[in-house]
């Protein structure tokens, strides 16, 4: 690729040093109270003068900073559309449930999406599904029918979650950027593996699994579902023959280790891209690292607000992995 990303990557290199290290995360967890955590974050530049004392506003502001940085780099935000798929389909799910139950929606929508939550709610209420993006309209109609006519909230969720995975995979495979293709492939494969593991534990049918799983080039949905019917050992055996063998090893250890592997797998997928200086890879890797950092901080703040013991918070943080994309740090702290 040409050198059009040279400036952007140089800027990202400078920003990477501000990502929280594991030592900083440990300091945050060690804070004695929720309020001390917020002060700790504010002292490190999180939020702004309008977010003091309000965790959600602070975290929302940090998310906004990510995209402000992308804008300053003069990179078309459409390059990152695949990263917004889950938020967009979350809004769809929330809108369907709010419209079908006729309950006030409250503060349930993400705002930074191609279709706003309120607009989506209006579309669902009017059953004007054609106004939705093409990859959402059929799922929206089917989800409404599942909830209104069958009262099946689980089926509603499955329909929308499956449509989201299909949209992520399609957007990824159509991208000209290797990191986006790798990200999409990894997200969908990990989601399919999670579905298989949970379906096996709850004795779901193969029809349920195939309805919930999305096709993915790096594993066979059919073989994975059949393995889940046979038991946890069969799932591990199948995964050992794929590029997701690490998931099999984690499953053999514990469910906590498996959940940690699921998150780390995404990080592992994108990590090599941060060194490809003439591509968009380092920028996307930074965006994902920042999102992972915000996710980790949210979990810590939630634990502090609930007055959980420090060790319990550490266990929860390990489960989502607070490892970022700096060189020389392991992915399994």
Give the C-alpha Rg.
21 Å
Give the DSSP E fraction (strand runs of 2 or more residues). under 5%
Please give the largest β-sheet.
none
Structural class: mainly alpha
Q: Based on the structure, what is the oligomeric state of the protein chains?
A: single chain
What percent of residues adopt helix (DSSP H or I)? 55-70%
> How many strands appear in the DSSP assignment?
0
Low-confidence stretches: 321-333
N/C terminus separation? 35 Å
Order of helices and strands: HHHHHHHHHHHHHHHH
Mean pLDDT figure: 87
The backbone outline, from C-alpha atoms, is globular
Number of helices: 16
Would you give an account of this structure?
By secondary structure, the protein is an all-alpha fold. Helix content is 68%, strand content 0%. It has helices spanning 6-16, 22-30, 34-43, 55-72, 81-101, 117-126, 134-148, 153-174, 178-201, 206-212, 221-230, 232-240, 245-253, 255-270, 281-305, 310-320. It is globular and about 50 Å long.
Show the helix and strand layout.
Layout: H1 6-16, H2 22-30, H3 34-43, H4 55-72, H5 81-101, H6 117-126, H7 134-148, H8 153-174, H9 178-201, H10 206-212, H11 221-230, H12 232-240, H13 245-253, H14 255-270, H15 281-305, H16 310-320
